[in-house]
Amino acid sequence: MQKLRLFTPGPTMVPENVLLEMARPMEHHRTAWYRDLHKELCELLRYVFQTQATCLTFTGSGTSAMEAAIVGCCPQGHKSLVVVNGKFAERWVQVCAAFAIDHTSLDVEWGHGAGVADISKAMDADPKIDTVVVVHSETSTTALTDVEAIARLTRERGALLIVDGITAVGALPVRMDDWGVDVYVTGSQKALMLPPGLGFAAVNDRAWERIDSGRTPTLYNDLKAYRKSLETFDAPYTPAVSLMRAALCALRSIKDRTLESIWQETTMLARATRAAVVAMGLKVYAADPVDSVTAIMVPSGVDEAALRKTMRSRHGFQIAGGQGKLKGNIIRFSHMGYVDAFDTLGAIAALEITLKGLGFDIEIGIGVTAAQRVFAEAME
Ligand SMILES: *Cc1c(COP(=O)(O)O)cnc(C)c1O
User: How many folded domains does the chain comprise?
Assistant: First the structure.
């Protein structure tokens, strides 16, 4: 027998009660039933973003919320600075380019988070910059950015801060209002343990002021249209009813578990995985590693494609490889959503067996033991 265990940093594993919720009979969306559902979902979204800001749900993957955010917040006459430290940060630049948004990018070495000093310098050099975009958890490189510190800077300078929280919200501490972030976005298929298909954006009053100050070339992902519909807890177009239903179910269970305990558990999974990596004689890729996903460097002499293929076909573990220039050089394991210590021990055990089979010199059990020790201590 072999079970599929999804360890990719999106989509992630979805709990059975959430899956079953999507199989229930279809309901119509222009109804009190839908408005009640949507209203409760908004409250729960405010909880996961830790905000009193407006929470909007888009039909589309995470990119739909990214596009809505930057297009809405950067009408003509405004300029954004995008900190580029990986593939997802590059996507923000692509959105800017596609919509002819005035922008400049600040390249940061991959594996590192965005630094306050660099952003400050870039803003000094170009006074037109009044919007900053950073990726909280750069999933492609697994680098963490200190959003709180950057928000302090953008507040001081009166710039808007847009944060891609797609593998942060629901996994890592996110305190939108305390920190002073203006727009946070996320997607359904990462830490929120839902299937792909929903994008979420939390938008504060400072951001709305900007959004209302200009016209922007958009229709389907228009923040203003979503805000208008939200007055009655409706959606501008037919929403993904089954996914909305699943979202309510998943977010209720997140609230029941509490964010604090989820943040702690995510950290424990990441710490155990990193301990296993070191014990196995491997290396963690990121210089500023994030806790929602771990990238491990593929040791020289090991074929990355064969490694991932064996993990999947022999042992049932679907893991991720590298993207862009990291393709072939790293493998990534998610710590988000519906995953626990014992799933993670299994993944490490499978990795050990796979590496040995591919000729890597490893003492079987050494990584598992290191991880298990971390779990045992944390569970005391
Ligand atoms: C997954 C991801 C996205 C984009 O997601 P899609 O859902 O594929 O559109 C953007 N940013 C980060 C950091 C991500 O992890």
Answer: 2
